[in-house]
């Protein structure tokens, strides 16, 4: 009797579990369970909360700062050869990315350019999160030897020469930079480092402050770059409002969405209205043969913790209580090894190639990667093989294209 | 019942059991929370040394927001446990990963209550939070389930 009772309970549980996963109907008019509707509507752009304030940047939401930042964003004078600006890789007409596997400034970098829309929502910037604010992020490429190839003293001098009034209105009068060398920075080109050593602490602080403020203006501009609604959002909003969804997505796209939020487990990391958890994951992406080993987040945590331009640093406008992400950051463990930030999937099919160094050329191949889940070149991949059919993978790809931006 | 009928009856057992196996695999893949999960935020610790309670500092607990929790520790008879050393760990049992942040107890609030800062959950689903409590009665721990 006990065995029979157990069997009934077991069978009941099995049915419950199976029915939770089974489609609720084969026609497109009612294909979703309540749980699925909740997962889908949580992805809609209309659920995106208001942009959170950035306490570390006093001018983050100042339109005058955004206007200055927009000018700086495309100013090629902020580079060693006079030819590179932020917009060289973050092309406004290409959703602020460059379609290249590895970004090219004055030289070639080791990473793929990331799009900008929605990044103001992320506590961590860059593929490895080695920066903890948009303004601090903007400073990195300026001093990178392969991106802008310049230095903070040069940047400060360009600001003083070309943007005197706009700067002063936002940040107060510029310090006297006339006695400074043309190029000086604490790291980078040997001449610039040598010149930096000759500066007084006060001079260094003056340069650092103007440099940081330039980043804050650029960040104010970048905060205005937000994703625009897609066909998927129209579908999700109709679903949320109980309206008809016919004609908004094809049956193949609906199947792809079902797999995305279900069996594919894509939504685990690609969650919320920006389709990202803003966290770091090792997904077994292959290494690039000609590049040095890239440990991703594992190396970035110390960089951001010791960055003078971080949330807790002297140039941040935040109080210590505003810096919880940095204070409670996980700093060690195997999960960080070769972990890279989950990118947003908005507009994803329109911007190959994929992954942190553009290793994978097409969406189809990305899905093949997730389907087979190869082991990681270092650390441990979080992926499990999906073993999906070609039809299912095709449906997932079709769904991803519902996230295309209007041309 | 004939011998062959018994044999068939026996085979019928395979259907629900097989179904359970398939269901369990699919459930794991689809990250559904186990139906009988105990979501109580007040628990007796593993060895019965303490009763610990958790209270989130934000409601509802939003995915992606860093926030604080309050922990309360008493002895089984209800006496507040002061000066306990408490550490917090957690993760997603179905995914095999930990918390995205490293929360810490930053303040004793008095009367056996402690502030835990830096808690964050970066995806929906079943999470656990484990409190390791070292207090007047010794070391013990309790694991809480959350369904987000």
TrEMBL record, chain A:
Cytochrome c domain residues: 251-404
InterPro entries: Cyt_c-like_dom (IPR009056), Cyt_c-like_dom_sf (IPR036909), Cytochrome_c_Peroxidase/MauG (IPR051395), Di-haem_cyt_c_peroxidsae (IPR004852)
Subcellular location: Cell envelope
Keyword Cell division: no
Principal localisation: other
PROSITE patterns: CYTC (PS51007), PROKAR_LIPOPROTEIN (PS51257)
Top-rank lineage group of the source organism: Bacteria
Keywords: Heme, Iron, Metal-binding, Oxidoreductase, Signal
Endpoints of the signal sequence: 1-22
PANTHER family in the cross-refs: BLL6722 PROTEIN, CYTOCHROME C PEROXIDASE-RELATED
Protein name, per record: Methylamine utilization protein
Organism for this UniProt entry: Devosia nitrariae
UniProtKB/TrEMBL annotation, chain B:
Cross-referenced InterPro entries: YtkA-like_dom
Protein name: Auxin-binding protein
All residue ranges annotated as the YtkA-like domain in the record: 67-131
Pfam families for the chain: YtkA
């Amino acid at each position: 009797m006990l065995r029979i009772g157990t069997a009934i309970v077991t069978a009941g549980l099995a049915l419950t579990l199976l029915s939770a996963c089974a489609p609720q109907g084969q026609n497109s008019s009612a294909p979703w369970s309540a749980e699925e509707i909740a997962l889908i509507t949580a992805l809609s752009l209309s659920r995106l909360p208001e942009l959170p304030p950035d306490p570390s940047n006093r001018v983050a939401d100042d339109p005058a700062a955004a206007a200055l930042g927009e000018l700086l964003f495309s100013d090629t004078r902020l580079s060693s050869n006079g030819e590179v600006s932020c917009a060289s890789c973050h092309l406004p007409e290409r959703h602020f990315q460059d379609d290249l596997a590895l970004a090219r400034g004055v030289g070639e970098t080791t990473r793929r350019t990331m799009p900008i829309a929605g990044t103001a929502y992320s506590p961590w910037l860059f593929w490895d999160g080695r920066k903890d604010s948009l303004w601090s992020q903007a400073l990195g490429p300026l001093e990178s030897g392969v991106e802008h190839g310049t230095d903070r003293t040069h940047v400060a001098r360009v600001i003083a020469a070309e943007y005197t009034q706009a700067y002063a209105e936002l940040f107060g009068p510029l310090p006297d930079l006339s006695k400074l060398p043309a190029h000086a920075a604490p790291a980078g080109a040997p001449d610039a480092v040598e010149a930096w050593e000759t500066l007084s602490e006060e001079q260094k602080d003056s340069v650092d402050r103007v440099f940081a403020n330039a980043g804050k203006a650029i960040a104010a501009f970048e905060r205005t770059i937000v994703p625009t609604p897609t066909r998927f959002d129209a579908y999700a909003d109709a679903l949320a409002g109980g309206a008809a969804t016919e004609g908004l997505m094809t049956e193949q796209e609906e199947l792809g969405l079902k797999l995305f939020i279900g069996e594919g487990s894509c939504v685990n990391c690609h969650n919320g209205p920006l389709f990202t958890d803003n966290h770091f994951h090792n997904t077994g992406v292959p290494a690039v043969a000609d590049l040095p080993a890239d440990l991703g987040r594992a190396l970035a945590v110390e960089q951001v913790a010791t960055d003078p331009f971080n949330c807790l640093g002297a140039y941040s406008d935040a109080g210590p209580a505003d810096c919880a992400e940095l204070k409670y950051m996980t700093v060690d463990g195997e999960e960080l090894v070769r972990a890279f930030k989950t990118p947003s999937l908005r507009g994803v099919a329109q911007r190959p190639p994929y992954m942190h160094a553009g290793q994978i050329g097409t969406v189809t191949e990305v899905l093949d990667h997730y389907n087979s889940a190869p082991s990681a070149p270092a650390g441990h991949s979080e992926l499990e093989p999906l073993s999906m059919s070609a039809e299912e993978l095709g449906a997932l790809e079709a769904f991803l294209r519902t996230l295309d931006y209007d041309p | 019942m004939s011998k062959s009928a018994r044999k068939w009856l026996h085979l019928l057992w395979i259907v629900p059991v097989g179904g359970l196996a398939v269901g369990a695999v699919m459930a794991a893949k689809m990250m559904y929370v186990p139906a009988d999960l105990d979501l109580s935020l007040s628990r007796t610790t593993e060895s019965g040394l303490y009763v610990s309670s958790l209270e989130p500092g934000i409601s509802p607990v939003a995915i992606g927001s860093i926030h604080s929790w309050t922990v309360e520790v008493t002895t089984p008879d209800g006496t507040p446990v002061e000066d306990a050393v408490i550490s917090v760990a957690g993760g997603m049992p179905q995914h095999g990963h930990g918390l995205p942040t490293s929360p810490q107890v930053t303040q004793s609030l008095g009367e056996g209550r402690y502030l835990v800062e830096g808690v964050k959950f970066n995806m929906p689903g079943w999470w656990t939070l484990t409190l390791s409590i070292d207090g007047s009665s010794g070391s013990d721990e309790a694991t809480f389930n959350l369904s987000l």
